[in-house]
Automatic annotation (TrEMBL):
Substrate binds at V19, Q20, G21, R34, T77. Belongs to the radical SAM superfamily. 7-carboxy-7-deazaguanine synthase family. Catalyzes the complex heterocyclic radical-mediated conversion of 6-carboxy-5,6,7,8-tetrahydropterin (CPH4) to 7-carboxy-7-deazaguanine (CDG), a step common to the biosynthetic pathways of all 7-deazapurine-containing compounds. This is 7-carboxy-7-deazaguanine synthase. Binds 1 [4Fe-4S] cluster. The cluster is coordinated with 3 cysteines and an exchangeable S-adenosyl-L-methionine. Homodimer. Pfam families: Radical_SAM. Mg(2+) binds at T47. It comes from Uliginosibacterium silvisoli. Residues 25-215 form the Radical SAM core domain. Its EC number is 4.3.99.3.
Length: 219
């Protein structure tokens, strides 16, 4: 793997150490590797700065930077990480190095080749994102109980759509399901009330890092 890793490069926006703000790993000190570029343009995106720019780094240099922070938890995110094919090599290299690795992906690109040791955090884009037509529904067949589905919701219409997907596609049988409100658009209390009213077996989450630091780059 090391020889293969040294031969590939990825365009990186930033590598930083912070508290994981989402998913069942929320609160864990984590190194984030944010890759540059994304084929989607969600209306509520909070990482538009990762669409362009960045700098190419060899995978072994990325591994060295991750190791400097001394934590077992690594999250590869974007942008859309899988838009760069060497991302698959990076994920496997991180697993080989002994890290507990998660991948945040939009659900618009094929996840079937992702290393089975990686915890895939996959979005399903609700209509309010403006990208609902980009959902690659075949990806659902590649989810396992170690993965998680995340649905980011901007308003009640998004919630009703998400509830329908949850029920008709039996999402709870695939993996844990997360409902998250768009900050500044949907009140967390409203989403919580709807989840309780409908007795949905989902995990409601807010973005912990934004509660702590606000919407800061590198946090």
């Amino acid at each position: 793997m090391q020889g293969t890793a040294r031969g590939e490069r990825l365009r990186i926006t930033e590598i930083f150490f912070s508290v994981q703000g989402e998913t069942s790993r929320a609160g864990l000190p984590t190194v984030f590797v944010r890759l540059t570029g994304c084929p989607l343009r969600c209306t509520w995106c909070d990482t538009e700065y990762a669409f362009h720019g960045g700098a190419y780094q060899h995978i072994d240099d990325i591994l060295a930077e991750v190791a400097r922070h001394g934590t077992p938890y690594v999250c590869v995110t974007g942008g859309e990480p899988l838009a760069q094919k060497p991302c698959l090599t990076l994920l496997s290299a991180l697993c080989d190095a002994g890290y507990s690795v998660s991948l945040e992906t939009s659900g618009a690109l094929d996840i079937s080749a992702v290393d089975a040791r990686v915890s895939k955090i996959m979005d399903l884009k609700a209509p309010g994102s403006g990208e609902v037509d980009k959902n690659l529904w075949d990806n659902l067949a590649h989810l396992t109980p170690r993965d998680e589905l995340k649905l980011v919701l901007a308003h009640e219409a998004d919630y009703l759509w998400a509830r329908e997907q949850f029920e008709t596609r039996a999402l709870a049988k695939l993996c844990p399901v997360l409902f998250s409100p768009v900050q500044g658009s949907l009140k967390p209390a409203d989403l919580a009330e709807w989840v309780l009213r409908d007795k949905l077996a989902v995990r409601m989450q807010v973005q912990l890092h934004k509660v702590i630091w606000g919407n800061q780059q590198g946090r």
